[in-house]
Specification:
rod-shaped, mainly alpha
Length: 66
């Protein structure tokens, strides 16, 4: 009887552990993506501030594809 309860609790804890690992992996991937693309995003924001909306598309194309 106690072995059955322990087995059930073990399965529950294993599920919680897998869920926590999944969330941690998602967070690490998201953090990696943000740190990788932060300079690009910052550059695009700088173009929006300095270029204005009328020249943005041509500047953005030059920035992204240069």
């Amino acid at each position: 009887m106690t072995q059955l309860l322990l087995k059930k609790e073990y399965k529950e804890l294993l599920g919680e552990k897998e869920q926590a690992e999944k969330e941690l992996r998602w967070f690490l991937v998201k953090k990696l993506w943000v740190t990788k693309h932060f300079d690009e995003l910052k550059g695009i924001a700088r173009l929006k501030l300095h270029g204005g909306p009328k020249n943005l598309s041509s500047k953005l194309d030059n920035y992204l594809y240069a």
